[in-house]
Each structure stands twice: as structure tokens, then as C-alpha cells.
Automatic annotation (TrEMBL):
Domain named GP-PDE: residues: 7-263
Region forming the signal peptide: none
Cross-referenced PANTHER family: GLYCEROPHOSPHODIESTER PHOSPHODIESTERASE, CYTOPLASMIC (PTHR46211:SF1), GLYCEROPHOSPHORYL DIESTER PHOSPHODIESTERASE (PTHR46211)
GO MF terms held by the record: phosphoric diester hydrolase activity
A single BP term in Gene Ontology: lipid metabolic process
InterPro entries for this protein: GP_PDE_dom, PLC-like_Pdiesterase_TIM-brl
Protein's name in the database: Glycerophosphodiester phosphodiesterase
A Pfam cross-reference name: GDPD
Database matches in SUPFAM superfamilies: PLC-like phosphodiesterases (SSF51695)
Amino acid sequence: MAETNQVYWQAHRGGGAYEAPDNTMGANRYAWSLGGIPEADIRTTKDGVIVCLHDTTPARTTTAPADVSHLPISEFTFEEISAWDAGVKFDEKFRGETIPALREMFEEMKGRPERLVYLDLKQVDLEQLGKLIGEYGINKQVIFTHNIQENCKSMKRIASGVRTMLWIGGGPERIMDTYRQARDSGFDGLDQIQFHIKAGGDEGWPFQLEEPFLREALSETLAAGVDLEALPFTFDGKSMDLLLNLGIRWYATDEPARFLECVQSWQSRQNE
């Protein structure tokens, strides 16, 4: 990937931090419309329906009644949660959005191979998830993601053709240690690695993860046929230029539209 100017990107929570309401079909369609890959966090309701929701409870993102909004989503049926609005607290124009069943997302992916999705495991039985993916025949459109490598390995065994990503957060030392464990395993069961990249470097390099380590990791992942993805939580044109010039071609972002502006500006300068 590093030899081309093509950039691939994930809309973290569908772009739910700033541009669309967390884990809704509106967010998914928004990411697809911009050429990105939405991320859905997946949990299971009391009656066994896999749904898209980041938090354990519905309090932050929905209009669930205050007397029950503190309860985990696993204590409600899908019918109960479908009565809550999951868009209006973000913006009035998203009124009517609900917590979607993962099946709803798959319905809009079936027969449309250009539509991919990241599925971030929160609380789901992997066998059940594998059966649902297989039912829709969208295995090659799914990138399963978790911060435990064993779960990625298990998902690849359960659902043939599904890709996997190990996301690695925390401080620089933890990220480097976890990455090197994955590398030393031969990236077993992994197609992608994601680093959470936080601000906090110096003027020459604005990220906590230092440039030499990123160069090392990029070289090793490229050699192994593994994609290296960066999630810079804060960025501007200058900091994105640094990552793009380094050769990183996969990203995750909370701000799809602003991210694309930075990427397109960089791409136009490469073509001059």
C-alpha cells in the first residue's frame, strides 16, 4: 500500500463523535457515501439479537427512560430498545434513528461488495456472529476487530473469508509491547493492526508514538502482508501529512469529512 497514494479509512463508530450519531444506520450510510468503512460496535440483547451500540448502556446515545437507561443493553429485548430514539440527542436532523440490529446493516451490504464494515466485538457469541455473516454471504466484506488476538484468530476459524484487525490502545510502551507480541506470533490470525495514536510529542513529531517505531512497524507489517492502520485522535493537515509521508495508508477517524479534506489536500500535492 505504501507505494501508492490510495488511502483507506474506517469511520470510528460510524463517525459518531462529531458528524453522525454513534452506531446508527444513518452513520453507516454516511461513511459509505464518503467512500469509507463504518465501524459498528456489537452487543446482544436479552432475546439474542445482535445490535450496534458502543456503550454498555443506552444512556448516552438514546432517549431510553431515565429510570432504566443505566441498565445494560443485555437486559432489554430488541422490541424494547427499538422504541428509543438514537439520533435526536446528537442532532434533530437525525430524529427517528434507532439502535439497529446488525442484520439491518447486513441487509444493506448484501449484493453490494463495495460496502465493507468493521465489527468491534463488545458482547457477542462468536459462533452466532459467524452464522449471521454466513447467512448473508458477506464474509469478504467484514473486518472483525478486537483488542485480544485470540478472538481474532477464533473469528477467522469460525467464518471463512472474514478479515481481522487487532486494535492496540494505551500508552506508547503498551502499544509497542502488544504489537511486538503480535509480530513475534507471525501476526497469527491477523490481517490488520491498528495503533491508537495520541497527541503529545514535540514540535517536530506531534504524536506520542515515535516516528522510528512507526517506521519499523510499517516495514514489518508490509513485509508480512498485514495492513497497518492509524487512529489519530487529534489531527490537522500538518500532522496528517507526516503520517501519510511515512507511508501509512490505512486510517480510522472520528471526523470523516475533515479527515478527507486533509487526505485530498495531500493527494493533490503528490500529483502536482
